[in-house]
Write a structure and sequence with these properties.
It contains 4 helices and 8 strands. By secondary structure, the chain is of the alpha/beta class. Strand 2, helix 3 and strand 3 form a beta-alpha-beta unit.
Length: 182
């Protein structure tokens, strides 16, 4: 399905080719089938909607821009996933506990902030703080996928999250973090 996009440049959709490659990697983790997913900084919902189309059970979309949310809601309706999703309007860097489904932890979390907001990846960075906020909502075997510019390299570990692998496509990189059992 072709997703609608806003006329603003605030959204940075992932290319179809990169998305297909990312989901091929996620299949190696037995995801997203039957997964509870969070799509942070979701924009028009590309990653979350792709997860639902690949049989994820539920997706929570988090976006702060009301204009983009209007487009996101249209895309969710158009795809027929209203019953399998929830949209939260807020800054993903500032929330955690109120986001969950209330029933289960997340199996898969996409973190796709604007590139400018993901340049600082140190232990005291907003990204590190976001991961700290989410640690209690990610399942014991859950993973977090962080999308950045390819010239950004994440730390090997953020609290209970450690790097499993990194992939690059074009000008972007995705780093897959797994939650440690400790």
């Amino acid at each position: 399905m072709k997703l609608l996009s806003p006329t603003t440049r605030a959204s940075r959709p992932i290319t179809d080719r990169a998305k297909e490659s990312l989901f091929s990697v996620l299949y190696g983790y037995d995801l997203p089938a039957d997964a509870i997913v969070a799509d942070l900084f979701c924009g028009v919902g590309s990653l979350g909607l792709e997860s639902l189309s690949r049989e994820a059970r539920f997706v929570t979309f988090v976006e702060k821009d009301p204009k983009i949310i209007a487009t996101l809601n249209t895309n969710i309706e158009k795809a027929g996933f209203v019953q399998n999703s929830k949209v939260i309007r807020t800054d993903a860097f500032r929330i955690a506990a109120a986001v969950g489904t209330g029933e289960e932890d997340y199996d898969l979390v996409f973190v796709d902030p604007p590139y400018a907001a993901s340049r600082n990846v140190r232990a005291d960075s907003p990204l590190s703080g976001l991961l700290d906020l989410w640690v209690d909502q990610v399942a014991a075997n859950g993973i977090v996928v962080v999308r950045t510019s390819k010239d950004v390299t994440l730390l090997h570990q953020y609290g209970q999250f450690r790097i499993e692998e990194r992939r690059e496509w074009g000008t972007m990189a995705v780093t897959i973090l797994a939650k440690s059992k400790t």
